[in-house]
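Morning!

As promised:
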Amino acid sequence: MNAPLQTLNEMQRATSPFPESVTVKDWKATGRKVIGWVNPYVPEEIIHAAGMLPFQVAGDNEPVQMQGAEAYIYSNTCSYIRTCWQLQLDGKYGFLDGLVSCSFCDQDKRLYSVWEYYKKLPYMDILYAPRKRDEEAVHLYLGDLEDFRDRLSQCRLSRIPDRDVANSIRVYNRGRELMHRLYELRKRDRPPVTGAEALEVSKAAARLPRERFNELMEQLLDEIQRTGRQIKKARRLMVIGSDLHNTNQVAALETLDAVVVVDEMNCGIRYAWGQVDTQLPPMEALARYYVLGRPVDMHTWNSDGRLEFIGEMAEQYKVDGIISEIVRFCTYNGWDKFDLKKQMAQRGIPILELDLEYGHPAGAQVKIRAEAFMEMLESRAG
Amino acid sequence: MSDASLITTEELATRLKMAAEGIKKVPGLMKSSVGYMELLQKYVERIATAKEKGKFVATHGTQQPIEIYEAMDVVGVFNEFWGVVSDVVKLESVPEALSISASTGTPGEVCSFFRNMDGLLHVGKWPRTDFFLYATSSCDNVKAFHTLGRRYGIASFGMERPHYPFTSRALDFWKNEHKRLIAFLEEQTGKKLDYDRLKETVRLSYRLTEICLEIDKLVAHVPSPMSSECFGGVLLALRLMCGTQDAVDFLTGLRDELQERVDNGIGAVKEERFRVMWSSFTPFFDPKLMGFMQQKYGAVSVCEMLARWRGESKWMLDPDDPLGNLAYRTQLAPGNCQYAPSIDWAENSVAQARIFTADGAIFNNNWGCKQAAGLGPIVRDELLRHCGVPTLTIACDVIDNTFTSRADIEAQLDGFFEMLEGSKAYQERRAHA
């Protein structure tokens, strides 16, 4: 049994209670603003360069009852979106000074509209998330980023200069580099952290001032090195699909003599991926990174690259099987299902498909299916 | 898995022809109902015979510049419409296609317009298609065009649209996307676009817009002269046949008939008791529902958001710049604001409710539509706040007749119209009518 990671405990303390944590309270106490962001095409660097705290709007480890939200967003919307809105209705996001979203999917777009209509914040903005990955898309997105910078500059009554954006890029690049190092360590036969712990790290990155997160991340990597921590589990798993923020969902899988060594989530490996090019003008560099610099995601029309990325990661991390979890009503994941299964079959990688409600703990049915999947993996290994 | 109930293109064309003939014998219907059915049949017939005539066929999503297809002799198949027209003549086809789609692993929560296409493609009963065309001025489901294109070896091209469509930067970008579409079509067909021909299809399309606006004025009359059997005609002409003389001819005839009915004081029903707006879409899943509402409640459908232009819609900015006009047209087009910020749709709904003096709105909340699920409550609240127009929200599937029972819908309508009749806003409106 490994001892708990002290640094991770500190990350969790600093991000608790959720969402208005001690860190958020301290930040606000100095008169600075907190801007919520909703999806992976909102560049935190620009918010950071404005001297504001970017904070990812999401759920956490407790399931949320969403009946109140359904008066504003019908129940055939994904439970991630309804959870976010319910938390707002419950007053949990009362600390936000602004919200920035992207039309990443229909539902993100509608969450933004609902927020704007029923609970308008002092600063609100929305960008377009290109569905293609080409020069035209970069050009389109860059235009939106410049508009975003202009409007946020107006909000703080002074221009956000290029040099501040460049500095923020360096800070965030450092964070990505450190997170990526942790991913690399998970390639080991005996990874130093569980999937649940790694998810807690990613969540902290999206909730803490990035400089503080980077310090903690360095400490965490030192601690791992110092303690020689190893997770000894029989099976290696990959989790793909919708973003999860309830760590218990991953922890439940890891009670089954398995460890999640990699994922394909926007809040996971994509969040830790690559570097913004510091040789380019900073705004262009951001546009290039966000459109072209990360692995293809589910919202991209041509998702062939996404499926290839999943296959490659599964092989690099030597996974025994993939857990594909889809939050119900996710259109993008829905349309990838057929080809995903086919391509993983061609690679000889078993896949378990789970339909989940966002944030809700794995029920008995999920557990039974996961157990059966583990047995199947065991028989293959045998 | 049975596919016996699936409708084929040829069967669809034949049944529509029979329906057009049959309608001529039904007493009491608007004359234009025959023209409507004939236009529908013509649309399907073009698709059914495209290959033997050596034409290219494009299956496309919503909000496309169909005028370009017309100018390039490419026959369009609007994927959403295919399920709608299937329902007109054979309600059993869509549920069966959806079952087949489910058997491939496609989840039931995605839009059934696309699942219907998925199922029919899987068993080879979708119209033969050379390429898929789509845009982000639609929904997330257009990803299916790429996905299914890859699966079945069909080339595809998607156009990106910025989130806020009416800025000059957005319109420039969008116009450039039209150029890229043309380049794609030229490459696929091996033919160059004749810009003079495009000017002509754009001119016809603009004429269609003008006639639509004239029709709107007539339909807004109290009592409304438009009866349910012709209600879908405007949508058909605008969304599927724009850029064609056939569509102009049909709408001209419809407009003249409506004028005649207004002049003679003929309404859709003898006693118009309620004026209904469809604040998302009409009940495609139950083609007879609007007729039933007219008969049972005296509830006349006066407007729907998918076929009503906003404002004066003067999108012909420069006759010598057909692409610039088209880029603007496809943004202004009816239904386009459904894919824009919700408040845009809601404000349009309020404007339409005022123009058509609607008493109540019905919002069909399509199970597979995430756009609607998020904007429905805002539309509902805006209509009530600004015009005192209450909304009935019906949980449904856009084309799957089996999703919600007719009995359930009738029970909801009973309660809604009873409530409406007793409301102060309704009584005041009626007093002024």
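Chain A touches chain B through 51 residues (CB under 8 Å).

Hope this helps with the figure draft.
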